[in-house]
User: Fold these one by one.
Assistant:
Number 1:
Amino acid sequence: MLRLWAFSQKPSPHISLSVSRRIHSTAVSKAAPVPTPNSTDFAAPQKWHPHSIRTGVIARKRGMTSVWNDQGVRIPVTVLQLESCQVTANIVTVRKDQSEYHAVQVAASDKPAKSTTRQMKGHFRTAQVPPKRIVREFPVTPDAHVPVGTTLSAIHFVPGQFVDVAAKSIGKGFAGGMKRWGFKGLRASHGVSVSHRKIGATGAHQDPGRVWPGKKMPGRLGGERITTQNLAVIRVDSSLNLIYVKGAVPGVDDAHVLVKDAKKKLVALGQHNQTKGLYEKVLPKGVDDLPFPAGTSEMAKALPSIIEAPSYRKSPFIAQE
């Protein structure tokens, strides 16, 4: 059971990051014995460290809007909402080279049992969670396993940090070279007969006498899984389980998206060798700690409903000293 920093007085509905990071940094979990690989009752570590990789969450893209910070700067944001996002399994697999693969399986969005297959009904029954519409797994470090049945909350992410969002992009059907690849096209004046939007020559002369594979040509545009990286978390609403991220994310409205901690914005310290996994991650400016191993619904009950990131951008209308 988590013990959180207690307020000396009733908190306001809005809280700054300086208070929220103290709350996250003082979250302590009770130690438990180390489980076997087949067990689902994993112990919760006490604190995030630079080598930790947390699980991600499954959210729904609700659309875009704008927010204004305390200096009046307008920020376009995308609203992501968690729908009954729960942990359904902890995965530990031994590879051929005797290394271990650790992952946390997460499911979201309740669905009727009558439209769920028998196999998935048994899987959800074992995890003691209702049937879900989408199930995904996120690779984690061995210390970041989450007990099965845990309900994840929007406070899993701290305002001020960066996240990566992956989803299936909007399909645009068959598109030409100008729309698909940004080609300039041919001249739009006299002398070009019905070839204004053509891509031009695609092959060479007799040598090689063919079109090289990978040539940018007309074809299907969109409808692929893509990842938008380094999106800043602007605001978190724990009462409605909303995450406000700066900028646009892939996918149509109400589509499921995968949200996890950013890989590239966490600056490397000391030795940097990604091929061997020898690198350390540093939290962004203004963030002291992350809820570890995950931000749960129980933790959200002890926090204010809305947590916002502070603004580090100085307004041009404020006199500089």
Number 2:
Amino acid sequence: MTAPVITGLGVLSPNGIGHEEYWAATLAGSTGIAPLTRPGRDYPVRFGGEVAADDLLGKVPGRLRVQTDRWTHLAFAAAELALADAGVDPAALPEYEMAVSTAASSGGNEFGQREDQNLWAKGPMFVGSYQSIAWFYAACTGQLSIRHGMRGPCSVVVTEQAGGLDTVAHARRAIDDGARLAVLGGTEASLSPYALVCQLPGGRVNTTREAALAYLPFDRRAAGHVPGEGGAILIAEKAENARGRGYGQLAGYAATFDPKPGSGRPPGLLRCIQAAIADAGVTSAEVDVVFADAAAVPELDAEEAAALVAAFGPHGVPVTAPKTMVGRLYAGGSALDLATALLAIRHSAIPPTVGVDRPDPAHRLDLVRDRPRHQPVRTALVLARGAGGFNSAVVLTAPRP
């Protein structure tokens, strides 16, 4: 299968808008996690990562703003940034040779909540007709396809945090089947009251009242994650069309599913790591850094650490989780990790994991903490685990001369 090249990055993150601002903030260890301004103080979740992108979202045409959710507004804005970064004008390309694949998790929850409130408070005549499409998981894929005239293979993946990586498989397949380029990745806007209420029963969200304890993966004080919004949209192109451009290649991908709890079988993450490395045609010794899923749930951290030790040996590879600066963005989170890993390849620097002052020695990880580690990065492994048992892994390699 062809290894497409990523030529454009569109980043909307709680600690930076656009990949340059985001990268500078990430290397500096600047966090975007802060007390939530939405939905207010009556909810047990006190901290999260909010995106301050009103200037970009204001560029979404008014007609589309009223038809779509904030989650899709973020996708519009990120796609505009990605296309501009790639130097691509969709109008100049054959419409059936452009593909779109996005990931979704909570869907258009804010839009849906508003319409439900109208239904119960005012009656069915006050529910907008766009309710039927704005909440739907495929809304971002469909709206991006329509807006940019991309009528090639289109898909949506609903595998929670793993989804951003799963779009890589769809993009690679579309390009291998003849598409010139593919739009991939995901965004998330899961900070509405309805969305937060849906997240709480899973027991993975940290409800601490201390900002310093909000999100500490692989730490002895780990007690869950905090949610965030934003994500990344990326542009992948055929290698022959991207000569002289690009951040890196989508060299390998794999996905597995965890066995039924209580079955006695091991989690599927190790198999996923090994399969992605094999698919990329590299060895574990060639992997320069791992961008971890970093659940910050003790048992999940232990599972991930065990898989990394089994794959690379104790302290065998630098591991980082820059999402400690933005929160878990669910469908947008692993897409943002893809963008971050590509920036690490370009700039020869591994961004830090912040706030983890008491790493659990039982994990036996070489965790990059507090400050970046400057070293060549030619091969990066990105991991994501979605609630419900999804495991995905992507291997990125430096672009060929």
Number 3:
Amino acid sequence: MANNIYSPRQQYVLLITCLLVLAGLILFGLGSYITGFLGAGILFVVFRPWYKALVHRRNWNRYVVTVGILVFALVVIILPFTALILMIVNRISYYAQDTSQIMSVLHTIEHKTGFTFTNEQTVRSLLQQGVAWLSQRLPSLASSVLHFVVVIGLMLFTLYFMFTQEGSFLKGLRRYLPFRDGTLEELGESLKNNVNANVLGQALISLVQAVLTGLALLLFKVPDALFWGTVSFFLAFVPVLGTPLVWGPAAVLKLTQGATGQGVGILLVGLVVIMNIDNLLRIVLARRIGDIHPLITLAGVVLGVNIFGILGLVLGPLLLSYFIVLMRVFERENLHRPAPVVEIQTPPTNEAHPQP
């Protein structure tokens, strides 16, 4: 039998290299379908407390509970979320084709201020660029219906096996992830806090703000109040900058149209009610479902949306949180690592012939 030409260390390095190359090829081949697996991981964290309560505590059939969770996720989360995205995409496409309403508002602002800063060609170009940007972020516009259905199917299919084979799935994570048990617990806690804060908590805050924004716009007779209320739901995921991007321009629109009372009313509702509701809910929910610093959320959203699209609202802050956790682990292990002992050798002395 011929001897292998590689040393054990070279074999080890080549094995790791092969694994990394194959993993990169797999990720590259999955392409945009990887969002289905990432979405399954998020839903697994969201619904796992329900699964544990029904399967582990009440001894319900795990397959029946899993199918129920999948149906609930499809009917209550996925389909309504898809409908909201489609509504936004269709309306933005309409505004991109017909710029007369937007130009009318801009001309009114120019007349009030005395400055000319727009033309129809510029506005149309900006709107088309905005639609192109959204087409890369919103899955319903970025791909065909078949591609979208495949992504949803992969997500539900993966979620099914994550729940029905929960034990082997979690055991495999602990076995193959290159972290100690303490680090895995920290990463798991970070994942739980991020999902709770940026999915459950932020979705609730965004829903409340969207309802209040839509009602305020409807009360003060802003056109397309339902549409802009829906837009505010997605914008509310961005801290500080969220809903003011909707009710602020609406107030300016009313002021430029001469409806001073309605414009001031929108500003008062936005500043006094909507903004304070946001702050109050964040304080209450931070104690119950996870506390994530707003700076991490803001920077994570900007980072995540560019990489993962709409899922970046959750995955971006998660990446930053994991980076911070790993930095803490690195710092802790380096501080506790004993310093190397350096032996200082003294030159030998001549015992036989001492100096006088």
Number 4:
Amino acid sequence: MQYREIGKTGMKVSSLSFGASSLGGVFHDIKEKEAIQSVFTAIETGMNFIDVSPYYGHYKAETVLGKALKEIPRNSYYLSTKVGRYGKDGVNTWDYSAKRAKESVYESMDRLNIDYIDLINVHDIEFADLNQIVNETLPALVELREQGIVKHVGITDLQLENLKWVIDHVPSGTVESVLNFCHYCLCDDKLADFLDYFESKEIGIINASPLSMGMLSERGVPAWHPAPVSLIEACKRAMEHCKAKNYPIEKLAMQFSVNNPRVTTTLFSTANPENVKKNVAWIEEEMDNELVNEVREIIGDQQRVSWANS
């Protein structure tokens, strides 16, 4: 396992990190005992960065993760959670007010059984008025940072342009990291176009969804996946090509996403400890660069960034 610093935060985190969304039953029902064991396994295999949100499973992911964290020494991991997106009784809600952001931080700490948060993120800023993020949400989190309740502050979004806009409109040092998903994987590498910008601002880069929400998997995409049919079919052809070479596309996708040293860490999520072990073993093997080129040719340059640009 390699370790890289998130921007200038001092947090040196594993190149592959544990995303706890699965603990909320976001993708399918889970067995809680097994889910908790997956957290233990992540730590045992060298992962030291865990990301969660009150939104995942409408507080369930934080609650389940909190049960695991009770048994793990606090100095053995960095914990990231979020504010802004919530939900109850199956209904999603959003609230980016300063008041709710501060309340949410303390609520998360209670659920997670911790007394400080290493990294607090404003979650999916595309759902907010960006001016509110700049003038209200982030200042509230910076205030908590000054008090030591949270150690570092970041923002997350699918749209890279939104991340850049917010960073350009806040004082230097306000935003210490960005979390972006589906933009540094085999079928979409748009994040690469923004690396120089983020680095110039000394901002750490957290990548998520290396399987592009199922497109780069033998299982295939869920019904709600927003990608165009042409890209889904291209990824399916790429999957079959890898399968014929006895090299699972999931393995190649994981290796590709963690292989760029300019991307601090890549998050993947599972509630199965065996999946944790498998993914860690994969990234410790040498990547087949020739197969990467073949897959990217099958998918096609034009399609790589078509579905997630806006």
